[in-house]
Amino acid sequence: MVKYNKLVRDKIPEILDQKNILYEKRFANDSEYKEELIKKLLEEVTEFAETPTEEELADVIEVIESFKKLSEYKSVEKVRLNKKEIGYLAGSVRAYDNWTGQQHINFALSLNGKKNIASNLATRLQFNPKVKTKNLSSGNRQKLGVILAFMFEPKVAILDEPTNALDPLMQNIIYDIIREQTYKGATVFMSSHNLAEVERVCSRVGIIRQGKMVAVESMESLKEKQMHRVKVVFAGKYDKGEFLTLGGSEVVMASPEELILNVRGEIASILRVLSAHRMKNLEIGRASLEDIFMEYYER
User: Fold this and answer.
1) What burial letters (b/e) apply to 65-74, b meaning 16+ CB within 10 Å?
2) How many structural domains comprise the chain?
3) pTM of the full predicted structure?
4) Which residues are CB-neighbours of 251 under 8 A, at least 6 positions away?
5) Can you give the pLDDT of all 299 residues of the chain as single tens digits?
6) Which of 65, 118, 143, 286 has its CA at 20 to 30 Å from residue 154's CA atom?
7) 95 & 187 share domain
8) 8 A C-beta contact, residue 86 and residue 158
9) Domain for residue 1, yes or no?
10) How far apart are CA 161 and CA 110, in angstroms?
11) Does residue 220 belong to any structural domain of this protein?
12) What single-letter DSSP state applies at residue 247?
């Protein structure tokens, strides 16, 4: 007996019935059916790639519709719609070289079709959408990526190094755009190696070390970690060893006349030691986010 390992969509049973051919059939279980659908999808996609006609595309869509009937994919339409509420900026913006920025924007519109602020963003970022992307500088490619990420004012934005390749003025505009969207209720996830940028823009910080999240804190609590940067210029000689014995202090830089310390916790003990010395200058300030990160999490 000839074995037909085909999907019902190929109408093999109907053809055999019409020809009065006797046969046995067995219904595939869910796992087997999914496996056959995958094979069929690969087959149809290959045929469409070789002959990109409407008929071949219709065959691809038909298999995809069959996938959507499986229980594990019953929420796929919801997932697809949710994706429209997500803006994404990759660490390296990739674009079609022969398309202009406007063509990229128009393509995004064809997929989403929502009210958008692309024109406003292009104006603010001083971006010319008529230029082909192959002729754009890295900074202007970054601007295009930001426009595509925020043009539909998404509920969630995922940004990888959003100010990469931008000058300080443009960076400030990006910060303003991010703040505006968060004020409107958006959630923005931003990765950055620029801790000064994180300190300026973010309200909550996750610190990743060696591929693992080692801390998640609000910006306020991170800043409240008591750490000060003490800079002293002495009027005479001093002994660096006096400061090394103090708990919570770390010498950042020492020269014959100058000393810079990071001090964790209270600074009263440092001040008591300093009071015994003649000083030309003394500066005490809160440590930056970068200093706090290096002190608490880099070890």
Assistant:
1) ebbeeeeeee
2) 3
3) 0.67
4) 240, 243, 244, 259, 260, 261
5) 555 555 555 677 788 888 888 877 777 888 888 998 999 999 999 998 898 889 989 989 999 998 988 889 889 888 888 888 999 999 899 999 999 999 999 999 988 877 899 999 999 999 999 999 999 999 999 999 999 999 999 999 999 999 999 999 999 999 999 999 999 999 999 998 887 788 889 999 888 877 888 888 888 887 667 678 899 999 988 988 888 887 778 888 999 999 999 888 778 888 889 999 999 999 998 777 667 776 666 65
6) 65
7) yes
8) yes
9) no
10) 27
11) no
12) T
Phi, psi of 33 (to 5 degrees): -65, -45
CA distance 280 to 266: 23
Statement to judge: residues 136 and 232 lie in one domain: no
The answer to whether residue 212 sits within a structural domain is: no
* Tokens encoding 142: 């970054």
Task: Evaluate whether residue 11 is within a structural domain.
Answer: yes
Write the CA distances from 13 to 17, 39, 69, 149, integer angstroms. 6, 20, 21, 49
Which of 262, 266, 269 is closest to 288 using CA atoms?
Answer: 262
Segments forming the whole domain that contains residue 65: 7-69
251, 174: one domain = no
> What is the DSSP code (8-state) at residue 132?
B
Q: Same domain, yes or no, for 89 and 147?
A: yes
Please give the single-letter amino acid code of residue 230: V
Inter-CA distances, 2 with 8, 14, 16, 24, 145, Å: 16, 16, 12, 10, 56
The verdict on 154 and 51 lying in the same domain is: no
Residues 198 and 248 both lie in one domain:
no
Q: Domain check: are 47 and 86 in the same one?
A: no
What single-letter DSSP state applies at residue 258?
E
Contact predicate 171/140, CB 8 Å: no
